[in-house]
Amino acid sequence: MSTEGESAGSQVEGQVDSRVGDRDEPGRAARAGSSWASLRRLGPYLPLRPIGWRLIAAVLSALLATLCGLGIPLVTQRIVDGPIATGDLAALSWLIGGVLALGVGEAGLFYARRRLVSRPASVVEANMRADLYRHLQGLPIAFHDRWQSGQLLSRAVNDLATVRRFLAFALIYLVVNSLALLAGLGVLFALSPLLGLVVLACSTPLVVISYVFETRFKTVARLAQDQDGDLTTTVEESVLGIRVLKAFGRGPELVRRYLVQARQLRGTELRKVRIIAFLWAALVALPELAIAGQLAVGGFAVAGGTLTVGTLVAAVTITSYLVWPMGSIGWLLSETNQAATACDRYWEARDAERTIVDPPRPVALPEPVRGHVRFEGVRFGYPGADREVLRGIDLELRPGETVALVGATGSGKTTLTMLVPRLADVTGGRITVDGVDVRDLRLADLRRVVATAFEEPVLFSASVTENVALGAPGISDDQVHQALRVARADEFVAELPWGAATRIGEQGLSLSGGQRQRLALARAVAGQPAVLVLDDPLSALDVHTEAEVEAALRRVLRGVTALVVAHRPSTVQLADRVAVLVDGRIAAIGTHRDLLATNAAYRHLLATDLSPAELSPAGPSPTELSPAGSGENLETTEVAAQ
Ligand SMILES: Nc1ncnc2c1ncn2[C@@H]1O[C@H](COP(=O)(O)OP(=O)(O)OP(=O)(O)O)[C@@H](O)[C@H]1O
After folding, report:
1. Domain for residue 499, yes or no?
2. Residue 92 has pLDDT above 60, yes or no
3. pLDDT value at position 150?
4. Fewer Cβ atoms within 10 Å of its own Cβ: the N or the C terminal residue of the chain?
5. 307 with 387, same domain?
6. What backbone torsions phi and psi does residue 483 show, to the nearest 5 degrees?
7. Shared-domain flag, residues 339 and 402
8. Is 434 in the same domain as 510?
9. Could you tell me which residues are beta bridge partners of residue 379?
10. Phi/psi at 537 (nearest 5 deg)?
11. Is residue 192 in contact with ligand 1, taking CB distance under 6 Å?
C-alpha cells in the first residue's frame, strides 16, 4: 500500500501543472471557498449507473483490503500469546494459514479496486473534455478574444487529468484511509486504551498540520496551474507564428520569454515541493513517534504484567499499519485540493455564457431567399471598450447587389462584416435579411444563407475537399470541384500530389498565401449562399492571380448579395456601389466613379492605390468598373453625418 502511495506522491511532486495569461482575467482570481463547490459539481458526471456503483465497489474493495491488513496484527497477537507462548504448535499452522488468507485477500482486493476504478475515472475525464470542447465551439468570438488558447488547452488536458487522478485514487483513499484510521484507533483502544491514547496524541497535530498545509498549498497549486497555461500559450504561439518569428529574428527573444516563464513555473513547483516535503516529514515523524511512545509505555506495562507481549506486538503492528493512512491524509488532501482547483479552472471556462444562441422562437426566412440585407441604425462596441466602433450604420444591400465597404484602417469594416453571420451581436439597431432580424433566425439557417471569407484564410489539417466542404457540409465532390473552379483554385489543386484529396497540413502552411485565400473563397461559395460577406479576400493575391480570382468572383457575385471589404481599387471595381465608413457611420454611398468625383474622403482613402487615370473623374465608366452592376440603378448619396 505504501508503495502505491509513495509513487503517487512522487507523481504529484514531479508533476508540472501551472497557469498564465493576461487575457483570461476572468479565470485569474483563485476564488477561496469556491473549490469545494466546484468539486460537488462533478456530481452529474458520476451517475450511479454505470459510474457511481463502480466507484462505490472500489471504495468497498479498498476498505475490505484495509480491514484484511488490520486483521493480520490481530492474528499475530494470537500467535504470540498462543502457540509461541504456550508451545501449542498444532494451532500455529491454522493461524499462519489465516495470515496467508488475509494477505492474499488484501492483494486480490487491491487488484479489484484498480480494475473497478480505472474505467469510470477515464470515462468522466473524457465526458468532461467532450463537454468543454462542445461548449467552446458555442462560445462567442469575444470569449476567444479574451482567453488564451494555451489556457484552454491546459484546462482541457492537465486539469482534467488531475480530476481523473483524484477520482481514481485520492477520492477513494480519502474515504478508505479515514475509515481505516478510525477502525485502527478503535481496535487499538479495544486492545489497550493506554496504547490507543499514545497514538491519538500523536495524530492530533497531524490534523493541524494538514489544515495549515491545505490552505497554503491551495494558493500555490492554483498559481502553478495558471503558469502552466501561460507557458503552454507561449509554446503554442511560437509554433504557430514560427514564420514571423524567424523572419524578424525574434526567436531568441521568445526563448528568453519562455525561459522566464519556465523559471517562474519551476519556482512555483518547487514551492509546492517544499510545502509537500515539510508535510511529509511531519507525517512520517509523527507515526514513528507514536510507535516509540507505544514501545516505551507498553514495555513498562508488559514488565509490570498489565499487558501481554502479544498485545504490545499487535498494537505496534497496527500502528505501523496506520502509518500510511495517517501519512497519506495530508497528501490526499493536497490531491483533493489540486482537483478542486482544477475543477475551478474547468468550470470557469464551462460557465462562460453562450451569448450568441438560437432565439427561443425562431423565424423561418421566406422562400425563396432573396438576400435583401439591411443595416438599420446598427451600433456596436466591444465589451469593455469606452467607445463604440459602429455608431449608427444605415446601409441597404439589394438582392443580387455587391456593395464594397471602404474605410480607413481600424474604422470598423471587419467588425461590420462579423455582425451579419452573428459572429458578434449588434449592441444597437438591427440587421435584417429579407426583412427578418438575423437574431430571430436559427444560427444554422442564418449561416447557410450567409457565407463568409475572412482576410486571414484559415485552413484546417484536412484534405482540400474537406476544407472546401466545411462551407457546406454534405456537398458532393462535383460541387467541391465547381467551387474550386469558381475560385480559380482547380488548377493548382489538380497539381497537388493527390489532387483534392491532398491533406494540406496545419493551417495550410504548405500552400502559398494566394492559394490559401482561393481555397477560403471556394469554401465560401461552396454552399451557394444568398449573401456573401468577404473581408478583403484578394489581399494576399499577386497581380496575375488577383485578376484570375476577380474574374471568377465577378461571376459568383452576379448571383448573390455581397458585402466586400475593399482596400484596393481592383476590389472596389467588383462592386455595384461603394459605402464609405468614417467614424463609425456610413459617410457616403455611391458608385466608385461618382464617389471619386464628389467625395474627397473617398479619394483620399484610395489615393495611394490608384493610378492618375483611375483617380480622374473621367476615368473608367461605371459599367467598365462594375460589370456585375446595373448601371441605371446606381446612385450616389452623401450620407449626412448624424
Ligand atoms: N476583439 C476586439 N476587442 C476590442 N476592440 C477591437 C477588437 N477587434 C477590433 N477592435 C477595435 O475595433 C476597431 C475596428 O476594428 P476592425 O478590425 O473592425 O477595423 P477594420 O476597419 O477592419 O481595420 P483594417 O482595415 O485594418 O482591417 C479598431 O479600433 C480595433 O482596435
Report:
1. yes
2. yes
3. 80
4. C
5. no
6. -65, -40
7. no
8. yes
9. 391, 428
10. -75, -10
11. no
CA of 389 to the centre of ligand 1 (A): 8
453-475 pLDDT tens trace? 887 788 888 889 999 988 787 88
For the segment 165-210, what is each residue's pLDDT rounded down to a tens digit?
A: 998 888 888 888 888 888 888 989 999 999 999 888 887 787 678 7
Give the total number of structural domains in the chain. 2
Residue 362 lies in a domain: no
474: Cβ below 6 Å to ligand 1? no
460 and 520 part of one domain: yes
522 shares a domain with 428: yes
Number of residues assigned to the chain: 642
One-letter amino acid of 418: M
What value does the CA radius of gyration of the chain take, rounded to a whole number of Å? 35
Contact in structure between 309 and 80 (CB atoms under 8 Å): yes
Burial of 512 (0-12, 13-18, 19+ CB in 10 A): middle
Buried b (16+ CB within 10 A) or exposed e, 585-599: bbbbbbbbbbbbbeb
> What is the phi/psi pair of residue 549, to 5°?
-70, -35
Show the domain range for 193: 27-350
Domain boundary among 350, 382, 408: 350
Cα of 39 to ligand 1 centre, how many Å? Answer: 40
Same domain, 383 and 245: no
Per-residue model confidence as pLDDT tens digits over 327-381: 777 678 778 888 998 999 899 999 999 888 999 999 998 888 899 999 999 999 9
Residue (of 183, 67, 316) closest to 308 by Cα position: 316
Cα distance between residue 130 and residue 107, in whole Å: 35
Give residue 422 CA to ligand 1 midpoint distance, Å: 16
Region label for 375, one of left (φ > 0), alpha (ψ between -120 and 50) or beta (otherwise)? beta
Say yes or no: 261 and 312 in one domain: yes
What ipTM was reported for this prediction?
0.96
Judge whether 6 lies within some domain. no
Q: Which range has the worst mean pLDDT, 310-314, 462-466, 601-605?
A: 601-605
Q: Is the CB of 384 under 6 A from ligand 1?
A: no
The residue behind cell 498494537 is: 315
Distance 518 CA to ligand 1 centre (A): 24
pTM for the predicted model, two decimal places: 0.70
Q: How far apart are CA 331 and CA 206, in angstroms?
A: 12
68 and 188 housed in the same domain = yes
In the reported structure, the alpha carbon of residue 435 is separated from the centroid of ligand 1 by a whole-number distance in angstroms of 28
Element (H, E) at 506: none
Give distance in angstroms: CA of 411 to centre of ligand 1: 7
For ligand 1, whether the C-beta of 593 sits within 6 Å is no
Which CATH number is 314's domain given? 1.20.1560.10
* Atom 25 in ligand 1: residue holding the nearest Cα: 409
Pick the residue whose CA is nearest to atom 31 on ligand 1: 410
The CATH number covering residue 586 comes to 3.40.50.300
More confident residue, 283 or 406: 406
Residue 539 near ligand 1, beta carbon < 6 Å? no
Cell of 567: 482596400
* Pairwise CA distance, residues 187 & 315, whole Å: 9
- Give dist(CA 538, CA 546) in Å, integer: 6
